[in-house]
Structures are given as C-alpha cells and as structure tokens.
C-alpha cells in the first residue's frame, strides 16, 4: 500500500510521494508518469522551498499572490526552469500580477476574472495556461463554477474570451468521500475535450491518480503541517 513518508527530510518525503504517485498510476493501468506532482509550498519560506528545489522538484503551487511574490522572483533567479501554479482564489484586480508571475492558473471560475486575465495576457504578452475550477460539491464558501454551468463556462473561456483552457481543477468537500467528486470532474472534462485534471491533495492523491488525475496538489505530506490560519 502507501509508502508512508516516515522520512524526516523534505527530499525523503518528496521521493515517497513521487513513488506513491507512480504506484497508483501503475495500479490503475496508466503510464507511471501519468500524473505530475505540484508541490504546494504556500506559507513556507524560501529556505524550505529551496530544499525541494535542491531535491529536483520544479513544479510548485501557491494560493496567495502576496505570499508567492515574496518568494518566487528570488528563487527563480537560482532555478530558471520552475513551473509555478496558482491554485487559490484570485481577485480580479490582481489579474495582471498573477499573469506576470504564474505559468499555470488553475482557478479560473467567473467571467469577469477570465476577461481580466485575458486582458492582462494581451498587455503583458505572457500567456499562462488555464484550468477551470469546478465546485463539485456546490459549497457556498468555495470557488469554482457549478457543475451544471461548467460546459457553458468552458466554452465561454475557450471560444469567446480566448484563454488557453487545458483542464479542470476541483477541491472536494472536506467531509465527503472524494471519489464521486473526482469522477464528476473527469466526466465534465471528457465531454468538453479537456485532457488535464488537477485533483487530489495530501490525504487523497493516490485515489485521485486512480480516478485519472494528471496533476495532484500535495503540500503537507511534503513540507509538514502548516499553521492553521494559513489555509
Ligand atoms: C493547500 C492546498 C493544497 C494542498 O493541501 P495538502 O492537504 O497540504 O496537501 C491543494 N490544493 C489547494 C487548492 C490548496 O489550497
């Protein structure tokens, strides 16, 4: 079963998570590199992130612009092949800064934001690829489009606004079985011809890989517990 990361180092835990992802993919008869690891480094300082970089990790996720802006421009001077994913909710007025810093935006979930991102891309001349976030559990406090509105919103972003929409992202409700949410996200992606699925976190990334995730977003299993306030 799971290779429970007993290792005390970030490098050791990273290796364990990568191994678990490969095993889950193979168990699901997918290629062993079918799912990539987005290491969620939110709230952790640059010197902690540097340990992951030194261990070879290059794909990272952050959920707050301000937190990311304080760390990544500097780290990128040392590691120029980093791929940075925005995985948190985005204020429309910060669209330009988001487009300037991130390579992948996983949380596009409303028309006003989609249009602001596109405008910023045209202005800066930088085009991060986008995921549409789907609120599979219809939770009022959570970002994402409603599942029944997803098809129309995907078409709007892709065909009318002109974003490069590559996939879907979801965060299942914390108090429910994640499997039906993973299955729903996959179904919506398939009927819209989208290849990428960002789903699965520390507690359920192996299950997500079995359900077709192409990216898993894992934080605490690599970096340890975060302070509660940080979300
Ligand atoms: C924090 C966060 C994660 C990682 O959560 P862990 O449980 O620490 O792995 C994944 N996705 C999103 C959107 C997050 O905000």
Please report the total strand number as a whole number.
8
Strand order of the largest sheet: 7-6-5-4-3-2-1-8
Give the N-terminus to C-terminus distance in angstroms. Answer: 29 Å
Please give the count of helices. Answer: 10
Tell me the Rg in angstroms: 17 Å
Give an account of the 3D structure.
There is one protein chain. With 231 residues, the protein is of the alpha/beta class. The protein has ten helices and eight strands. An eight-stranded parallel sheet has the order 7-6-5-4-3-2-1-8. Helix 5 links the parallel strand 3 and strand 4. Helix 5 crosses helix 6 and helix 6 runs parallel beside helix 7. The longest helix is centred in the N-terminal third of the chain and has 18 residues. The chain is globular, with a radius of gyration of 17 Å. The mean pLDDT is 95. Bound molecules: pyridoxal-5'-phosphate (PLP).
Features:
231 residues; alpha/beta; eight-stranded parallel beta sheet; 8 strands; 41% helix; globular; binds pyridoxal-5'-phosphate
């Amino acid at each position: 079963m799971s290779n429970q990361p007993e290792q005390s180092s970030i490098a050791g835990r990273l290796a364990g998570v990568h191994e678990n992802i490969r095993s889950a993919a193979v168990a699901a008869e997918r290629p062993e590199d079918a799912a990539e690891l987005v290491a969620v480094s939110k709230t952790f300082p640059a010197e902690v992130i540097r340990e992951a970089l030194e261990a070879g990790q290059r794909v990272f996720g952050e959920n707050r612009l301000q937190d990311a802006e304080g760390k990544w421009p500097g780290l990128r001077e040392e590691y120029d092949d980093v791929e940075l994913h925005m995985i948190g909710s985005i204020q429309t007025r910060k669209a330009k800064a988001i487009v300037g810093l991130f390579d992948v935006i996983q949380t596009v979930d409303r028309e006003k934001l989609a249009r602001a991102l596109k405008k910023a891309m045209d202005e800066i001349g930088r085009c991060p690829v986008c995921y549409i976030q789907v609120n599979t559990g219809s939770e009022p406090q959570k970002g994402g489009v409603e599942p029944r509105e997803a098809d129309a919103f995907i078409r709007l972003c892709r065909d009318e606004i002109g974003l490069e929409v590559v996939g879907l992202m979801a965060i299942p409700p914390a108090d429910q079985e994640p499997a039906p949410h993973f299955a729903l996200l996959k179904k919506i992606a398939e009927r819209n011809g989208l290849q990428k699925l960002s789903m699965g976190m520390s507690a359920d990334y192996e299950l997500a890989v079995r359900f077709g995730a192409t990216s898993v977003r894992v934080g605490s299993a690599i970096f340890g517990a975060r302070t509660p306030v940080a979300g």
